[in-house]
Structure formats: C-alpha cells, structure tokens
C-alpha cells in the first residue's frame, strides 16, 4: 500500500456525510462506495438499511477526502450517478453546526441541558435564539448570551404570535426548531412549514399518555415504567414520527410528583439524543416513521 493511500494522509479536518435513499435495487451500496473510492474519499463510517416492507434503501456514509477536492464538483458528479438509481441524497459538511431556535414555556430542565451541551461542545448546533410564551427564563438566556424573545400567546393572538415566531425562524436562519417543553400546540400551517425541522420532547412513552398532563395519567394507571419521547412535530398532537425514546422503572411508591422528577432526567437525555442524531444527519423521515443510524459516541 503506497503511503498516499493510507487514511492518515486524508485531510484531517475535512469531513463530509452523504445521506441517500432510493428504491431497493442491486448496486445501491456500490453506487456510493464506488463513487467515493474513485474520488479517493476515505469512508470513516458507513451504515445502510434495506426496508423490505417499504422496498426502500437507506445509506449514510461519512468520508474524508484524501486530496484537495471541490465538494461542489463532487455534488454535481454524484447527482448524475444518483439519478440512475432515483436516489434522493445530500452531501453535507459534518463540521457545520445546525442552526437552532429553541422554544420553551416555564419548565427549564430541557433548555438548561441543551445549553450546557452546546456550551461544552457536545452538540454540533448553533443556538440562534430562544422563544418563550413566558418571561420566566429570560435570565437563563442572558447568562448564556443568547437572544430571548418573550412572545405571549392566547387563543385570540395565536396566529399573530406564530407569525412572529416564523419571522424569527426566517430572520435567524434557523434550520431546526427544538420544542424544549413548549406547552402550546403549533398550528397545522406552522407544522407544514416545519416538516422534519421541528423536534418536540413529550413527557411520556408515546403512544401512551398524550396531552399536557402525562405524569398524572401515568400515576392513575399505576405504570411501572415512566418515559419520554422525542419526535418530529406534526399537526396531530403527540403523533409525530418518533426519533428517540427513554424509559426508567418506577413502582407504586411514586407519586405524580416523583414520576415527574424521574421523568425530567429522561426528558433531558431523550431530547439531547434526538437533537444530536438530527444534527449529525443520522435520521431519515419515511412517512410517519424514522430510520435512525445511531452513532458510536
Ligand atoms: N402541532 C403540535 N404542536 C405541539 C406538539 C405536537 O405534538 N404537535 N407537542 C407539544 C408539546 N406537548 C406535549 O409534548 C403538549 C403541549 C401542550 C399541550 C396542551 O394541551 N396545551 C394546552 C395549553 C396548555 C397551557 O397553556 O399550559 C393548549 O394548547 O390548549 C399538549 C401537549 C408542543 N406543541
């Protein structure tokens, strides 16, 4: 093996991810790996899934160019190859942080957790703004130096409030909206505009206990497991495609308050995991389901 073929010579700081999906057909893996090999792009991680029910194939390839390449040229060349397989694809710079806008009401535990992971570099995101229908968490945002927008909402002002939120999303260039315990239901129009770009944390193991008070519902049922669900937001409340879920054992001694205390930790971890998976381009949306290529760290 000549030294120039050794991965160590790959341009260390340049890392890209190719994600693609196409109808299940022979050659779909070679389409990607052969294309990258021919262009001396070293594959650092490769995951595939063939959905035999949907007859659909999914692939995610992370790669480092071994030579100084123009990624736009690579994209144009792959477009021609991918069209022969009817593949829907993207090649993205893995280092570029996902620009986020976080929405919250009064509970701060998920927001605190995301802010900590962001500040410590454990999430490849850029938090452009925090939006809330209450003033309560303004101090937390100020402490982190992030713009805070207090946009109150009522049934009468919902349409105008959502127009203000949408304006902020466009103004900040947010690519992902994170509902970190935002306790207002987004309209059908907002959900349509945010399809696949808004993640909500629901404080139960969906599809169980939908709605605003899942811990009380869980207590009434005497559950022995409590959980949380991170999902893409859809117009149907708590029905969106699930990205990640977490669960912990509980018992008869758990009051609704103790269930909520246990649940908060699960919510933090489950939402952070979903934001990480999305920001690393590891989640494919397929109808009301997801295909998730989990990472190793
Ligand atoms: N279109 C959607 N919007 C939102 C979703 C969603 O799944 N689709 N999830 C919620 C978060 N959530 C549960 O995870 C939730 C939030 C609020 C309610 C609710 O009934 N809210 C009442 C008002 C409550 C209040 O003012 O405190 C209401 O809107 O009438 C249910 C579930 C975020 N948005």
From TrEMBL:
Keywords for the protein's UniProt record, in alphabetical order: Hydrolase, One-carbon metabolism, Purine biosynthesis
EC identifiers of the protein: 3.5.1.10
Enzyme category, top tier: hydrolase
Annotated InterPro entries: ACT-like_dom_sf, Formyl-FH4-Hydrolase_C, Formyl_transf_N, Formyl_transf_N_sf, PurU, PurU_ACT
Any one GO MF annotation of this record: formyltetrahydrofolate deformylase activity
Pathway involvement of the protein, from the record: Purine metabolism; IMP biosynthesis via de novo pathway; formate from 10-formyl-5,6,7,8-tetrahydrofolate: step 1/1
Catalytic residue positions: 238
Pfam family, one: Formyl_trans_N
GO BP, sorted A to Z: 'de novo' IMP biosynthetic process; one-carbon metabolic process
Catalytic activity as recorded in UniProt: (6R)-10-formyltetrahydrofolate + H2O = (6S)-5,6,7,8-tetrahydrofolate + formate + H(+)
Domain Formyl transferase N-terminal: 99-274
HAMAP family referenced in this protein's UniProt entry, alphabetically: PurU
Family the UniProt entry places it in: Belongs to the PurU family.
Main function: Catalyzes the hydrolysis of 10-formyltetrahydrofolate (formyl-FH4) to formate and tetrahydrofolate (FH4).
Protein name: Formyltetrahydrofolate deformylase
Origin species: Parathalassolituus penaei
Gene name as annotated: purU
């Amino acid at each position: 093996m000549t030294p120039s073929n050794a991965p160590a010579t790959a341009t260390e700081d340049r890392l890209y991810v190719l994600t693609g999906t196409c109808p299940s057909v022979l050659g779909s893996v070679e389409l990607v790996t052969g294309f990258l090999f021919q262009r001396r792009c070293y594959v650092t991680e490769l995951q595939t899934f063939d959905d035999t029910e949907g007859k659909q194939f999914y692939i995610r390839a992370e790669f480092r160019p071994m030579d100084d390449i123009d990624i736009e040229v690579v994209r144009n060349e792959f477009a021609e190859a991918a069209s022969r397989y009817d593949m829907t694809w993207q090649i993205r710079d893995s280092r570029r942080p996902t620009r986020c806008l976080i929405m919250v009401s009064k509970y701060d535990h998920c927001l605190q957790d995301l802010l900590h992971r962001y500040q410590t570099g454990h999430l490849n995101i850029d938090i452009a703004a925090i939006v809330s229908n209450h003033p309560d968490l303004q101090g937390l945002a100020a402490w982190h130096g992030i713009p805070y927008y207090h946009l109150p909402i009522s049934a009468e002002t919902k349409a105008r409030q959502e127009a203000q939120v949408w304006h902020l999303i466009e103004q900040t260039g947010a690519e992902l909206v994170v509902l970190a315990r935002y306790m207002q239901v987004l309209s059908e129009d907002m959900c349509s505009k945010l399809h696949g770009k808004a993640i909500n944390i629901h404080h139960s193991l969906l599809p169980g206990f939908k709605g605003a008070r899942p811990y009380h519902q869980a207590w009434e049922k005497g559950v022995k497991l409590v959980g949380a669900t991170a999902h893409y937001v859809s117009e149907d409340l708590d029905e969106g495609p699930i990205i990640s879920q977490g669960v912990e054992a509980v018992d008869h001694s758990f009051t609704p308050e103790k269930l909520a205390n246990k649940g908060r930790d699960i919510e933090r971890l489950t939402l952070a995991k979903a934001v990480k998976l999305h920001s690393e381009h590891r989640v494919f949306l397929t109808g009301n389901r997801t295909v998730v290529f989990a990472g190793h760290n």
